[in-house]
Amino acid sequence: MTPAEFAFVCRLVRDRSAVVLEPGKEYLAEARLAALANELQFASAGELVAAVRDTQDGALSTRVVEAMVTTETLFFRDRTPFEVLRDAVLPDLISRRAAARTLNVWSAACSTGQEPYSFVLLLRQHFPELTGWKVNVLATDLSGQVLARAQEGRYNQVEVSRGLPTALLTEYFEPTGAEWQLRAGVRGAVEFRVLNLARPWPLLPPTDLVFLRNVMIYFDSETKKALLNRIARVLRPDGYLLLGSTETILNLGSPFSRVEHLKGGFHQIAK
Fold first, then answer.
1. How many CB atoms lie within 10 A of CB 182?
2. How many domains would you assign to the chain?
3. 74 domain residue, yes or no
4. Fewer Cβ atoms within 10 Å of its own Cβ: the N or the C terminal residue of the chain?
5. pTM of whole model > 0.85?
6. Domain range holding 12?
């Protein structure tokens, strides 16, 4: 991939997703776009980039952007946030929402679905008192392709081996060929929807818990500020925002403050 081709891909990805590809990521672009080029029957990554640049094909541009946006995820990622959800955050929210008996949860940039499904499995294992409640779990991503995979709830042996306890695999998955598929009841507990965090959002309900983990590390400061302000308008005043373990809101003028007594990256709107 030539420097000019890489520069074009960087501009395209930033314009469409706000993700910033740092210098030195040429190898990543080459590898991912070579795989996409092979799938779409182009001779090389360079030929694919030329087709996007010359034809202005919106669908092809979308495929390139989706290929370049990181989709790494796994079940119960980092473990600690899910332990804090179980022991502190969810008991607090359940107490506060006891009258309405409703919880709204949003997994932003959910990729292939392991995060929202992990949340649903956590509820099923530890919160029988939510039976009869209306628990709405929305999972979004800018990539329709990865959301299609997420909706199927179908994972290979490597994917179910990463973070998923064997007991949960046995109880909530069914073997299908060389893969494992979540049972229909778990899949049906999550609504998947295409949503680009860098573009105008559709109307979202007041939300009690937002997962926004390992997303902002790909954005510049102005995009981070705008995103946090928009999330603050969606989140209930006593709700929780969960960021990735390496992410910080320092020097962003954010309306959020870290919940210091909780591990795992939980934030709330500053009082």
1. 23
2. 2
3. no
4. C
5. yes
6. 3-68
